[in-house]
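Continuing the batch. This is chain 6 of the set; chains 1 through 5 are on the previous pages. Same settings as before, nothing changed between runs. Recording input and output for traceability.
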Amino acid sequence: MTDDSHDAIIIGAGFAGMYMLHTLRERGFRAHVYEKGDDVGGTWYWNRYPGARCDVESLYYCYSFSEELQQEWRWTERYPSQPEILRYARHVADRFDLRRDISFGTTARSAAYDEDADEWVITTEDGARTRARFLITAVGCLSATQLPDLPGRDSFAGEAYHTGRWPHEPVDFRGKRVGVIGTGSSAIQAIPVIAEQAASVTVFQRTAQFSIPAHNHPLSDEEQRRVKADYGRLRAEARTSHSGILSEQRAEDPLELPAEQVRAELERRWAIGGTTFTATYEATLRDPDANALSAEFVRDKIRATVDDPETAELLCPYDHPIGTKRICVDTDYYATYNREHVELVSIRERPISEITPRGVRVGDREHEFDVLVFATGYDALTGPLTRIDIRGVDGLRLRDKWRDGPRSYLGVANAGFPNMFTITGPGSPSVLSNMIVSIEQHVEWIAEHLEHLRATGTRRCEADPAAEREWAEHVNEVADETLFPRAASWYMGANVPGKPRVFMPYIGGVGVYRELCDEVARQGYRGFHLTAAG
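Output for chain 6:
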């Protein structure tokens, strides 16, 4: 190990960065975190839009590494809101004294690998430089906001916000005309809340989304006691499950069952609510005909909820199998379109032509607003990494290596970038899972890897190009066995103009992925070139 500054620099102080810092400190490594925000929380520090809420239940969207922590924290709702998640993150930072090793308000501008010293040189926006043997990126999968490249975008004279970079103070919509561009997850959460205040809300929809009711509710003391008393078993099951989210999945082929039986089961799962609706039958995400049963069920629910038939039909998705885009979870989203002051404008056939100082022009109509909300998503998975100037061996830029799509080994390491590890990067389950489960698995695996390097006197660790290529092929093969590649989703990079269409996460399952990673470790970190100190 080097005597310079730190053993490891970690970029990002969200749930991944905080746990990585805690774990490395516990194992005797000198680690430090750079965080561009002014506090911990990552995604939940930045995403403060109205209605922001996690789509994983609170009792499972939390760390499991500390029995005392998981027993002492009390969640108030089934699905935690952004303020509550941020309070939890702050509690963790205070409880484990993490802040003393975090530099807040510090943006990592670049990171370059010094081949002579086998160290990373990290440069921040203010020009300060730090050296570390290891670079660990914990920048999140959905942290690089994406704004549409619309003519006149910056000419709007009113208030303009992106859901991913919301002001820290509440925005007052009372008496205002609000335009919302986008109908992804953040819009589906925000629109009902905005509509409760605003004088009018106009939603510009390019692609209709499938959304499942959250059926959110306060958590009783009894429910919390019951889950916490069984945490050991529940956590173990989650770690070996497909998504890290516990759900009941039926193995029967719904196409071979009586239609009334299938509908009854879908009704039961609709009443439960949440993202696991698409896991009702194993065949749903593999068989187009089986998928169509669930998709039409949800479209029927939309038609039954929305009073105006024309609006209801616009809200019905037809261009992708259900579940192949991030399934949304909502509270009264579809019912919001029954409000007289809420209008839906389809921009699928007739896109927005320009943003004007007064509003949004579609065709020959100019919609005038006081406030514009861009709910236009993120440059997912790769964007948070490629927006940092990361250079490996021979000055190879990560953004250049990934120009035709991301390629990594296990989603955690990259050939040509020694001693660099990525938490929940492309090629890992990441966004297809309960992120906390995946974060804990990655952090613990990386920490054990670093311990192995320290114990064996290894100064340099690099993914093998052949192993990386084989893993990329495996990721694609597994994805091709499903319906996911049929959707133009942000999983494929389809929401970013010019971004290559590559299915980025690993869909083989959290449990399968964990076993594959553990097997690599058991075999002396197969697929890595390890160079001993000379």
